[in-house]
What does this fold into?
Amino acid sequence: MTTAQVGIVGAGPAGLLLAQLLDLAGIGSVVIETRTREEAEGTIRAGVLEQGTVELLTRAGVGERLKREALFHRGVYLRFDGRTHHVDMHELTGGKHVTVYAQHEVIRDLLKARLAAGGEILFDVTDVRIVDPGGDRPALEFGHGGVARRLDCDFIAGCDGSHGVSRHSFPEGTLARHERIYPFAWFGIMVQAPASSDELIYATHERGFALVSTRSPTLQRMYFQCGTAERVEDWSDDRIWEEMRARLATRDGWLPKEGPITQKVVVGMRSLVVEPMRHGRLFLAGDAAHVVPPTGAKGLNLAAADVRVLARALQAFYACGDRALLDRYSDTCLRRVWMGQRFSYWLTTLLHRGEGDTRFDQRRRLAELDYLVTSRAASTAFAENYVGLPFQD
Ligand code: RFL
Ligand code: PHB
It folds into this structure.
């Protein structure tokens, strides 16, 4: 039997950043992860970081490569009705940036920092169980290297994503679940080509949504709205480019820069919140507690905001036995989470073609976009949410 002050379930952005923040506050943790290190480092997901997330990563000591290699954009383009409009978020938010830095790079930076500091991370664990989360001495039970292990903890952080065990360890009836499933999905591609645009393009078209993002000067990330039952095998490169060209078409003949497609994936879209985010000594953080559709680029950023709150609350507890921040953890996080849900839902429904959309719905969405790019008040509301609302402490 071994012990840890904080047992962390999951080595995604939430779990690893929490371990790093706790270490800086002199609090020990052990992270357990069901995947291998290679799998954890290889997952292709988020691309856009809020300004506050960048600052948090920098303060946590993992901002150096980010500062060197990330792409810092002033804003984004909105494309509709064949025209492109720039939203200058830098100007609208008093100097904030849109930062493009891939999630797996964040994971690599965090893992490197944790392992260099002697942090304990157990990969490839099996059969994870959270024991007695409501009691004074919760524990993690799991298999590692074929051996059954038990880790007794002061606290447990459930950072195991949307398919983890943590939220299922709450006693029956203690968790409310709020969910919305969207009737469409994203088809994501990775492309070996130069960038098609100097900033991200969010486009909406009669055929549906499309997004032009990037990873580096030679690797591009793009998505287009598709059906939930779409199969990757049914989409040849030619068919994908035909669809992208149609959805991104402008009146002045803009074309994406095409190249070999090295990855194709269909991603489902949903909004989910479970509340409260705490039961006894078990605290949920990140996708374990809430999922957003990727349109607003909020998921990883909300995960980072949760663990920021949790690390500060645990720091106050260990410094002077103060439980006030721990007791407020769920309410503090949920306020930001619901703001993120609101924004992600709004942007998703604004830019995607809905099931059963009528001409009226299409024209109404175009009018809303027109307002968004012509009213400074509306552009500012969009910009301040996209680059990240200030942290409320
Ligand atoms: P993760 O990343 O899912 O990590 C959870 C980890 O827990 C492990 N695990 C377990 N470990 C131990 N025991 C168990 N029983 C376990 N069960 C699972 C898993 O193996 C995994 O390693 O959750 P976390 O840390 O909360 O981070 C959340 C983010 O990953 C997620 O919100 C973002 O990827 C969402 N997202 C985006 N977020 C942004 O902020 N900006 C973006 O631009 C952005 N783009 C995106 C996205 C998500 C996307 N997809 C694929 C859903 C784009 C896409 C396409
Ligand atoms: C990405 O680059 O993967 C990305 C960018 C913006 C989003 C979602 C994903 O809204």
